[in-house]
Design brief:
4 strands; nucleotidyltransferase activity; 5 helices; transferase; Polymerase_NTP_transf_dom; alpha+beta; Beta Polymerase, domain 2; about 110 residues; 4-stranded mixed sheet
């Protein structure tokens, strides 16, 4: 059985705490994908977008390192994308980030 949104929020908040403990200040977090659309299944992961000033000029490889390390030990798989605040301010229509901002659920 897929998790409820309150359960997903608790898991995402724990994930945020992990990021902060790794030295990543978190400004915003959006849940998107199947949990945001309400059609998650038992096989669904949690899709999230994390906005942090630390990600502003960081390489994709380095972002993936922080985002992946923070997901260790989580009760459900987390698929996270990292963005800098400038990317959020200058979001372009038709991009994945535009879709996330429009239809995602802001957790923080």
């Amino acid at each position: 059985m897929a998790q409820t949104m309150p359960e997903i929020r608790r898991i995402v908040e724990a994930y945020i705490r992990n990021l902060v403990s790794l030295g990543v200040p978190v400004q915003k977090v959006f849940v998107f994908g199947s949990y945001a659309h309400g059609d998650a299944t038992d096989e669904s992961d949690i899709d999230i977008a994390v906005v942090s000033p630390k990600f502003e000029k960081m390489s994709l490889w380095d972002k993936a390192g922080y985002l992946g390390k923070a997901a260790w030990g989580m009760p459900l798989p987390i698929d996270a994308l990292g963005y800098g605040p400038t990317q959020l301010k200058k979001v372009r229509p038709g991009t994945l980030l535009a879709e996330i901002v429009k239809n995602g659920i802001e957790i923080r």
